[in-house]
Design goal:
about 120 residues, alpha+beta, 3 helices, elongated
Length: about 120
Amino acid sequence: MKIILIIFTLFISGCAQITGLESITSDGKSWDFDHQVQYDQYKINDNEYSLLIRSTNRTRFSMLSAFLVRQSFLLCEGYGYKIEVLEGVETYNDEKYIKNYIPASLKAKVECSAKP
């Protein structure tokens, strides 16, 4: 019972960090049909964004990472951005050696270069 309470507390505290961010879309969630991913996109400040990319239907990690780079390019309106991956990177053999592997969401912080 204590473990469930601890997990619930960690979940609530993790959600509390997201609520202070400004959503780009009305509800924060969007869908990209080309890459088959659902993503949450939040504006931290004028030059920083938070992206949470969720895989669906066993979307491969290569598609998630390609979407991250392309979405960062669109958000920053060009090159010169920095991507800090916070979680969700899988190793080469994760799917091969772990039965019923469920890929983690790719979470990243995108920092755009300041515009002159």
